[in-house]
Amino acid sequence: xxxxxxGGELLRDPAELAVLLRQLRARIKxxxxxxxxxxxxxxRQIFELLPIFADCGVDWLILHPRTVVxxxxxxxxxxxxxxxxxxxxxxxxxxxxxNEVETGLELLEIAGVVGLMLGRxxxxxxxxFKRLRQRQLDPVSQAERSEQLRGxxxxxxxxxxxxxxxxxxxxxKLKDLLNFIxxxxxxxxxxxxxxAQSLEKFRRLxxxx
Length: 209
Ligand SMILES: Cc1cc2nc3c(=O)[nH]c(=O)nc-3n(C[C@H](O)[C@H](O)[C@H](O)COP(=O)(O)O)c2cc1C
Prior knowledge:
By secondary structure, this protein is an alpha/beta fold. It has helices at residues 14-27, 46-55, 78-87, 101-108, 120-124, 128-133, 142-163, 166-178, 187-195, 199-206, and strands at 33-39, 60-67, 92-95, 113-117.
């Protein structure tokens, strides 16, 4: 009988985690990946978890090298990623603070690393995937960045209106998104957009990004 704990809390009980993984493995007919932090409160716990993942028939590991208790504090420890890649019997996908092409390309150089997972970096700049694939190290011009942001946020508007409950909630979600875009050049206009009281106002301000 499983206790019902989920997410990072599972790392507090590796025996229960193993039971859950075996049950999932028995039912999953396609590739089975596990995404996890390096440990609950000890970043080196991952080295105890690796044999568990392999024994339970997991196909891929996605590592975010912070601990659960660390939340988002500090930096993702990609020195640890390199150590895990050397010890990991599974193909490893790296996650955590991959916000520039250079960081992503450096991580892909590590033997055993087969891919990248982007979170906040992709919210800030969805074109990061394309630039990584094209190994494009040069930053885009400010004019191009403005055009990309107008297109990206503008394209989200109809989808958010459909997905969320009404204009007010869509506007709130769009404002949330701006918090993930650490763009010093555009903080002033983002500030105005975050204060917009209607989607129409937000849409008009978007033209000045
Ligand atoms: C808005 C948001 C939603 C997230 N939702 C999930 C989720 O549902 N499941 C999950 O495993 N991680 C989730 N994460 C964590 C990310 O997948 C990722 O592990 C973490 O943000 C570190 O990567 P990053 O530095 O590229 O953002 C979420 C992160 C953000 C910012």
